[in-house]
Amino acid sequence: MAGDTDNLLLLHDHYKETFALIRERETQRDRLFLWLLVIFALLVIEIQYPANFNGVLGHVNVAGNNIDLQQLPLARLLNVSWVFTAAFVLKYCQVAKAVERQYTYLHMLEDRISDSLGDADLYRREGRAYREQYPHLLNWAWVYYTILFPAALAIAVIYLLVVECVSLQGSVLSKAFDVVFGVSVLASLGLYRIRRLPGTNTGGVPPSSPPKIPAKDVGAAAAPNKSP
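Above: the chain sequence. Below: its structure as tokens.
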């Protein structure tokens, strides 16, 4: 009996650590989303309104040197903007996918703790209880963030690449550089939506039936994984 209690406490502590890690990554994901909107808005202005964009640039003082940003070639600014956009999209997709994966693991922990308590309705806050009578607004939010937003971003990336290659002046090498990073944005968005098939699990066990974890191994799994 004492051993069962110790195992239950160990699972409970591990559950709390996992939930705290998820919250940290959710905060990181939300911040990345906002920054991604800002960076992408700047990219749109650079490509659609290049003259206006150069006009609003001013001077920056770096180590006592006054740099006139208006004198910087638009092509170099676009190169930097595409690199930042690709980096932020990749990081956002990584963190968002990590949150999804951790919630699957959290639901498994709830199942184990609920079974240990002998009550199928307890300890279900983030799993079964959360999904019961799920509001339509949250379903719409899921569709927006996981389908509409990536699709709109992908369409916009293709459109901006076409406009840049056809309408803006610049060397072929510079435009090719931007195309490479634009395609990398599309690749990140596409891989973000690809889900592993149930039959391709590493352990060969369907997701609905997670493998049993011995209590002695739970402590080793408790160390949070910082890399999304």
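The first helix runs from residue 2 to 48.
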